[in-house]
Amino acid sequence: MRKAFSVCFPSEQEDDDDGDHLDDPELWCDLTLEDQQTAGHKELSFTPREWNLLKELVDILKPFGEATDLTQGEKVVTISAVVPSILSLNHHLEKLKPQIRFLSSLVRSLQASLNKRFLGIFVNVKMARTQDGITAPYSDPVYLKAAALDPSFSLLWVEPHVLVNRDIKAEVAQRVKELILQDAAETEQPVHLVDEEEQEDLREGEGLFAAYHKRQKKDVGTTPALQLSHYLDIAEGQNTLLFWGLNMKTLPSLFRVAIRVLAVPASSAPVE
């Protein structure tokens, strides 16, 4: 290193100090590429092939960093991002296959690992199959319901990232809707309807304006199916917590399912 600096910065007189400052890496970084090569350190410069390899590596791994950030939050909904992230990463790797020149084996290995680790998700969206009697990892339908009940994702992930034909995509979307409606039916709270005699008693009760009470309608609210249809129409990327805070009254059946499903963390510990 000292020789390199002496070549690049010749001095008429040697200093009496020990010259430790010449080994400072910050000084070396300040040198231009040409000066580094002149100093006899060509091995520190990347070749064009190495630059292209590094660029491919960044292109491959960048979406994985985004998925990691989405699924390790501590104060935001995370479980809803699992299915869209996995399917998007698989689509990303599939799209890169014909474009990669140097790291094709890495792309294949990552995709194989993704399909093995999250086999249950691919089985649920009919992109893979598993042997009878074997429970695949991440096969719990809560991941599908969470993704659909997050307005950031809704069912928008089905069309671009479920890599099957259009008819099977429709089956997947219908299956997710049925899972949500099944949960909504199980959590539905019975509504007590006041009959005619009880309403007459209410109107004859005490108070100056007791007779002003309106008749209670027998058709109270909307069905879970209508709420789900309305939700899918208005969900377009809104903040999850804000959306359900604003729509808890207009979508009560779905709200009860959403608060139970979206409260599940995507992982038991932050990703390291």
From TrEMBL:
<dbReference type="InterPro" id="IPR012337">
    <property type="entry name" value="RNaseH-like_sf"/>
</dbReference>
<dbReference type="InterPro" id="IPR052717">
    <property type="entry name" value="Vacuolar_transposase_reg"/>
</dbReference>
<dbReference type="GO" id="GO:0005634">
    <property type="term" value="C:nucleus"/>
</dbReference>
<protein>
    <recommendedName>
        <fullName>Zinc finger BED domain-containing protein 4</fullName>
    </recommendedName>
</protein>
<feature type="compositionally biased region" description="Acidic residues">
    <location>
        <begin position="12"/>
        <end position="21"/>
    </location>
</feature>
<dbReference type="GO" id="GO:0006357">
    <property type="term" value="P:regulation of transcription by RNA polymerase II"/>
</dbReference>
<feature type="region of interest" description="Disordered">
    <location>
        <begin position="1"/>
        <end position="21"/>
    </location>
</feature>
